[in-house]
Structures are given as structure tokens and as C-alpha cells.
Design brief:
By secondary structure, this protein is of the alpha+beta class. Helix content is 46%, strand content 24%. The chain has a 5-stranded parallel beta sheet, sandwiched between helices. Strands 9-8-12-11-10 form a 5-stranded antiparallel beta sheet, with helices on both faces. Strands 14-15-13-18 form a 4-stranded antiparallel beta sheet, sandwiched between helices. The longest helix is centred in the N-terminal third of the chain and has 28 residues. The relative contact order is 0.06.
């Protein structure tokens, strides 16, 4: 569109000479804008002009030598492409005017009712309207092309619009989603009601909310989603819509989980590694020092494990370690901390456990390990385990003291 300082280029399509001169006179007397007017008397000539010159607006009479009525608007719309069309009509008929707008006109004016600057103002408004429509189309195109899912809901969370990325994320088309709440489509049940109550408390207070949720795809698969929701307010400050931006972060969460597992577990047995175990032991020692209570540390060492590796091979040794780890895992409570400290050395931290309960568990472990039999071409592999126990005390200065006591007890058992 031309700037205000540049002339507004007008294509006037009018077969009545008197009406054409009137339009020219009205526009020339306007002091706010200047107009460059090209006058033609038929749609055929107008089409030729449009192909060879640039115009900002078309003023279109409906009664022309080669067209009449609403058909003129339809043809004009076709040849004018995106140029705004202001219809000039002799009929002050609201229904007819609405029909003209529906047929493709941007605005209309009744001939002889231009006023001092009415026609110029209508032209300017038509140009502004096209500018706004172009801007809106650009915004919609950007939203449509966005990689992240974007949805717009009403205040009741009913979906009013969603972009194609929403379909890729959830499996639901826009037609399927319209009028439904996201919770009716993708809610997995992995978040409790308190989670959603807190979210809505913030949103209804006009605050921006951001968080992570686990949702369910149309095909039933679960996926991790990073969700950002912003309230949209009207001029009175009332919330009228919500805009949600949703990003699939399943791949990132899987990577985080894998890295967390690598950092915290022994890759062969799946038990906690030495670092995590020492952290938990320190935490438990600190808790007992502050609050009292009881806990026991069991140190476990496979007997003659080097002989197994030498006689049966490292594959057999790995299998022994994995089966031994399974025995530890299956005999541990949810609060216990079983770990592989290194080589054939293992440990279990038993929080809230006394001496008697710890010894019962140690004996159960010893018996179950004794029942392990691994078939090998060179013969069946049997293993035994030596176990030492140490009671955590509120007088322990640090976790190393407890480790040394349990280690000493374990070597006494081995001897």
C-alpha cells in the first residue's frame, strides 16, 4: 500500500461521464490525501489496466456495458486479485450492500452521497482494512507454520482454533478438536487434580502458567509435553480467551532419563552405583544424628569371585553378578538402598531397621545366593556370599566410619 505522502492510485470503473467527473472532483478537493485517478468505462479495459499498471484501490460502478449487478463485483474481485474494491451504487439498499460485500467488495458508497470527504475516507478505510487483513493473514500463516502446537480456547477451555502442529502432536484434527476441552481429548490421568487446580488458580488470576504434563495421543501412546498457557484480556481487563503453546518433549525426557540412569546406576546390574549409595548413606547418618532412630548397613562380597572369572570366563562372571543383584533387589523394601560398590562388592542400606531385622535379612540373602546355580559348559557355577553388618549410630562422625565397621565385619565373616 502507498504511504500517506504518496498519491493513492485509484482505478475508477464507471461508464457514466457525469458520475466519473463527480468522483474525480470529490477526491481532488480532499486536502488530507492526494489521488492519482485512472478512469475506464468497462471491466474489459479495467482488466487490461490491472495487468499493466499498479493500483491501490478500485472504485467500481455496478452497471457497466459488459457486466451488471453483483456479477460485476464477482468479476471485479477476480481481476483485481487483492486490491480492495469500493462499490459505487445508486441503491441505498442494506441487503443489496451486504450481498455486494459477500460477493467480494471491501466497502460501498451510494452515488450522490459522498459528502465532503466521505469517499476519501471510505477509500482510506478500505486500504487500512486490507492492510490489517494482510497482517492477520501473515500472523495466521506464521501460526500455521509453527513447529509447536498452538491452540486458542474460550474461558471454559473449549478449543476454538488449533494449528496443524496440534494434529501432529495429539492425532486429533481441528474438526475433531473444535468445541472440546483439551482434557477431554488428551488427559492421561498422570497428573492429580491438585496439579490442575493450581494451574487454573494461576490462569484465572490472569497469570501466565508454564509446566510439564504427560498426555495421551489419540492412538493411546503417552507423551511428555511442555505446556505454556497465557490468558487473553479485553479492553476492560476481562479474560476472554486462553492461548496454549504445546511442545512434545518426549525425546528430551527420554534422554534425561537415560543420562540420569547412567549417572546413578551400575550399567551391568541396574543397582545404584557407589556415588549414589554414599550420598544416601550420608543423608541417613545425618538424619539419625539429628532425629535419632536406627538403620543398618550390610556389606556383601561374593566369595572366590576371581576364580569364577578365571575358570568360567568373564561372561559367566557377569551373569553371576546380575543374578546376585536380582536377589538383592527382590529382597529389598522400597525404602532400602541396594548398590554395587565395585567389582564383587555390594551393599544394602536398611533405613528404620534394627539389628535383629537386619540379621534375618542377611541370613535370607545368604541362603538364596547359595541356591543360585548357573549352567556352564565347564560345569554348574555355584556362589556364596560373605556379609557384614554395622548399625548406624548417632555418634558416628561420618559415613566412612560406618563403612569401615561394616567392611571389617564382612571380612571377619569371610574368614
Amino acid at each position: 500500500m502507498s504511504s500517506v505522502k504518496s498519491p493513492i492510485r485509484v482505478l475508477l470503473v464507471e461508464d457514466e461521464t457525469g458520475d466519473a467527473h463527480l468522483v474525480k472532483a470529490v477526491l481532488k478537493q480532499n486536502h488530507d490525501f492526494s489521488f492519482e485517478i485512472t478512469w475506464v468505462e468497462s471491466l474489459a479495459v479495467a482488466e487490461h489496466q490491472l495487468k499493466n499498471s499498479c493500483f491501490d484501490v478500485m472504485l467500481l460502478d455496478l452497471s457497466l456495458p459488459d457486466s451488471d449487478g453483483l456479477e460485476t463485483v464477482k468479476i471485479g474481485r477476480h481481476i483485481a486479485c487483492d486490491i480492495p474494491i469500493v462499490v459505487l451504487t445508486g441503491r441505498a439498499d442494506v441487503d443489496f450492500a451486504l450481498a455486494a460485500l459477500k460477493a467480494g467488495a471491501t466497502d460501498y458508497m451510494v452515488k450522490g452521497d459522498f459528502g465532503f470527504d466521505g469517499l476519501a475516507r471510505v477509500i482510506r478505510y478500505a486500504l487500512l482494512r486490507v492492510e490489517m487483513e494482510t497482517h492477520n493473514k501473515l500472523l495466521v500463516a506464521a501460526l500455521e507454520a509453527a513447529a509447536n502446537s498452538i491452540i486458542i480456547t474460550d474461558t471454559e477451555a473449549n478449543i476454538k482454533w488449533a494449528n496443524p502442529a496440534f494434529t501432529r502432536l495429539t492425532g486429533y484434527s481441528l474438526e475433531e478438536a473444535m468445541g472440546n476441552k483439551p482434557s477431554e481429548l488428551v488427559k492421561s490421568g498422570k497428573q492429580n487434580e491438585l496439579f490442575y487446580q493450581e494451574m487454573w488458580r494461576n490462569l484465572l488470576a490472569g497469570k501466565h502458567w508454564r509446566g510439564e504434563v504427560i498426555n495421551r495421543h489419540k492412538n493411546g501412546d503417552l507423551y511428555h509435553e511442555e505446556l505454556s498457557i497465557a490468558p487473553v484480556k479485553n479492553n476492560r481487563g476481562e479474560i476472554v480467551n486462553f492461548i496454549g503453546i504445546k511442545e512434545n518433549i518426549s525425546e528430551r525426557k527420554s534422554l534425561e532419563e537415560m543420562l540420569h540412569k547412567l549417572a546413578n546406576t551400575d550399567p551391568l546390574t541396574g543397582l545404584f552405583n557407589r556415588r549414589v549409595f554414599l550420598e544416601r548413606l550420608t543423608q541417613e547418618s545425618d538424619r539419625i544424628s539429628r532425629l535419632g532412630g536406627s538403620a543398618v548397613l550390610l556389606m556383601l562380597d561374593l566369595d572366590f569371585f576371581k576364580n569364577i572369572n578365571d575358570n568360567y570366563g568373564h561372561a559367566a562372571g557377569d551373569e553371576v553378578l546380575k543374578q546376585f543383584a536380582n536377589v538383592m533387589r527382590h529382597n529389598s523394601r522400597s525404602i532400602d538402598v541396594p548398590a554395587r560398590l565395585g567389582g564383587e562388592e555390594f551393599a544394602i542400606l536398611l533405613p528404620s531397621t534394627g539389628r535383629k531385622e537386619a540379621l534375618i535379612m542377611a541370613e535370607r540373602l545368604r541362603k538364596e545366593v547359595g541356591n543360585i546355580a548357573i549352567t556352564h559348559p565347564k560345569g554348574t557355577v555355584h556362589i556364596t556370599v560373605s556379609i557384614g553388618a554395622a548399625l548406624l549410630s548417632e555418634h558416628d562422625t561420618d559415613s566412612e566410619v560406618v563403612l569401615n565397621r561394616a567392611d571389617s565385619a564382612m571380612y571377619t565373616a569371610k574368614e
